[in-house]
Amino acid sequence: MNYENLSSNAKFFFILKNLFFVIMKSDPIIKKITESEN
After folding, report:
1. What pLDDT does residue 1 have?
2. Total structural domains in the chain?
3. Distance separating alpha carbons of residues 34 and 23, to the nearest angstrom
4. What distances in angstroms separate CA 28 from CA 14, 21, 37, one per listed residue?
5. In this predicted structure, what is the pLDDT of residue 2?
6. How far apart are CA 23 and CA 33, in angstroms?
7. Residue 31, domain extent
8. Maximum CA extent, the chain
9. Interval 1-38: pLDDT, tens
10. How far apart are CA 19 and CA 24, in angstroms?
11. Cα torsion 19, 25, 27, 29: sign
12. Alpha-carbon gap, residue 38 to 36, rounded angstroms
């Protein structure tokens, strides 16, 4: 088993999860901005 590959995959999924969480939190803000522009 390649532990380096496993850790890099874990880091990738961790970053992906954080990005998804940030997008979910900022989604209402993005909607407000797009509504105010129109």
Report:
1. 58
2. 1
3. 15
4. 23, 13, 14
5. 67
6. 14
7. 3-37
8. 54
9. 567 777 888 899 999 999 999 988 888 887 888 888 76
10. 9
11. negative
12. 6
> Token pair of 7, please?
């850790």
Dihedral of the alpha carbons of 20, 25, 26, 32, in degrees to the nearest 10: 140
DSSP letters for 1-38: --HHHHHHHHHHHHHHHHHHHHHHHHHHHHHHHHHHH-
Give dist(CA 32, CA 38) in Å, integer.
Answer: 10
Residues counted in the chain? 38
Q: Token match 């990738």: residue? A: 12
| Amino acid in position 21 | F
